[in-house]
Amino acid sequence: MCGIVGLLAKTDDMRRELGQFVTPMFTCMAARGPDSGGLAVFRDPVDPPLARFSVYAPDRSYDWSRLDNSVGKLAASQNGNSFQVNPLENHAIVTAATDRDSFEAWLGEVDPSLYLISVGRSMDVFKDEGEPEEIARRYKFASMTGSHCVGHTRMATESAVTPVHSHPFTAGEDFCLVHNGSLSNPYMLRRKLEREGLKFDTDNDTEAACRYIEWRLQSGEELNDALQHAFRELDGFYTLLMATAEHLTLARDAFACKPAVVAETDQYVAVGSEFRSLAHLPDVDNANLFEPAPEEIYTWRV
Amino acid sequence: MASVGEEIILDLQKQSLREVNRSLHENSPSLAGQSIQILHPAGHHSVAAGVNVAAHIEVQGHVGYYAAGMTRQATITIDGNAGCGLAENMMSGQVRVKGNASTCAGATAHGGLLIIEGNAASRCGISLKGADIVVGGSVGHMSGFMAQAGRLVVCGDAGHGLGDSLYEAVIYVRGELYGLGADAQQQDMTDEDVAQLERLLAAAEFSHKPQEFKRIGSARTLYHWNPDADLEY
Question: A275 contacts in B (CB within 8 Å)?
């Protein structure tokens, strides 16, 4: 199983209430994926050279004051007040004027127990193992604001239940992916990508798909072209929902046995594994409601 | 169960799904000939599943998986879309969906008539065992897979792999065929086909002419295992 949800707001009102609308979608899909959950939210971008880093602490009562930019490698590169730590339970969104490698090296110096789960200018990711309802409460999903978001409730079938194995998976910057289904060739993809120098955080099949698609984006392809390659190279069952700072993108494999329903109105585009996760949305009965066709790519611009 | 005049109202905003379905099951004898409205289905799964009485049930909105599954005798109308496994294993009666239906509509259905006014997704009528299905729009890939008995009428187009490994069910398609499955073949229409189509289109209230349809049936080459086939299927 696994549940996927996505919501793209087309109006400012909807952006302010993004969390209000997506939280019932997410908790409804807990029935499809009760062991972990996560949400990626896209907000107004920070200006370069600033970047946003989502950091996860396994210790649920972590003391975030330990993230101090006066120590170690980050100290010299920071100027003024650009460095900020915004803790939310055992996650923190850190804003800093640095790149992924320098940040990760610094994070290792400060506390090697911490994980970096996303990097970008717009995207924040919150994910953990445990009941999705509890995760939504703990990270205050209902109060999230932003232009679009992608969520996932996991029922693990192929790799361990841990916080880093939960979705959304991220790769590169401002790119995330959630997946309902299972791949039968993730190790082949992984060996191929490792030969190209890519590093993996887990043995999860979705991470292989996420890194594969982002690797193709890095090579200069548009997302549509990257997905056409993915249709040929990913073997297995999948409904994939992806987001970048500009787009929300949905695709299903040729068999289309993993579900998805789309509802589009003047106010929003909503994607859910089942219609009941969309039933509370405003004016949904008059929405353009459809099931995505196999091997079709659906993209909505923010 | 609230009753307005002669009509019984069941509201899924006020009662749980279990309560609604239980009241349809436990009051079966007294519901014969009654009109029943089910309000606010909101995509719930298994709405009006397992009904076994000649009642008229109207569901006002979109339903989730397995709606009207295992139906006997009842006439069930869904004024909305239906999720996977609509009218799965229905035995008799009639189920009509005014919108679209997701994958595996009418799977393994033994008897009765299933009408989908919009489109049906993949695997419509998979393993059909004797029911009739009329789809006003198109059907997705692998529809009629291993269908054993009954008829699947498609007024629109049929996706690829239609009728793969068909037994004795017959498929009629009015629009494009995007590819037949293994052992499915286009066959000549007989007078019997025309008569059956006329009956089903009238029952479903579609105005198409039987002569506009193509007949797809089994070539019967897969009925017996052929050790010389050398994986050429």
Answer: 43, 62, 64, 81, 83
